[in-house]
Amino acid sequence: MPTQVSLEQIELGELTQTVDDARAAADPFKLPTVLRTPLDARLTDLKAKDSATLLKAGDRATASGLVRAALDQLRTLVRDGYNFINGIGSFAISDPLRLGVLTTYGWESGLVGDFTDARIESLANLAITATPTITDPAHRYPAALLTLITAQLAIVNANQPIATGGSAQGAIDARDIALELMRLINARVRFFYCCVSDETDQAAELTTIGRQVRRDPGAAAPPPLPGATGPVTFDATALTLSVAAQPEHSTTLKAFRRALGGLLELAGESATTTVSVVQFSPLTSGVTYEFWLVGHNSQGDGPESHHVTHLAT
Question: How is domain 225-313 classified at the architecture level of CATH?
Fold first, then answer.
């Protein structure tokens, strides 16, 4: 999932781009190509890899659901195999031989036992590997049953690596590398601004790209919290919240959401006047949500806007 750190670095990069695009070529604070080119490339890379962590989280949730459904189906199927062996008439199999067949299939002492996920998977694998070793074909699981077990076991094997987070961790590692490169280019941009004039790190231009200006001892005063957020417009098709303008003193807008009776969630964040309420995770169909916006700056969040209610479909 996207983190607050990656979002902050993305916001700094986007703000720098916007400010730099508006600067004239002769402006001493106009970024040289040696800074602007890597800034653009690293910002694009981080945004893509940050989004990939969200997609991988969705993949993991999907894979976990598939594994769970397949294991539940396998539990029924291997139990069908147990019942099949027990259903063979006594005229066709002796009790000692029946016990031997059940044990070969993993039913120790001929008993059902507990169905843990690990045991279900083990019983399913034994259904496939043990069947050819049983001498009498009439004492084996039916071919149709083995086909169904094989199909469900394939679903488990294909999705378990994703469900346990292997691919998700790879996406997170890639994002973290891109994040560190973004931190470095943002720091280089700040250093460039400090070198342009004799004001160094007290240059007022630093505030235009969201950086703090160093103040003389005793002169520092924290900026105020963002002001009130204006009327909010909700787009039910795009699932976004919009305002006419950023609240006073804010650098970004945060969208929050809460399912009725549920917990508060950060839904999205943007340096523009439009914020997605599904930036970090999708809505659950059939659930009613309330959404609202707040302005945000380095001092924290401003007051909430009015709340908008929406039934997800």
Answer: Sandwich (2.60)
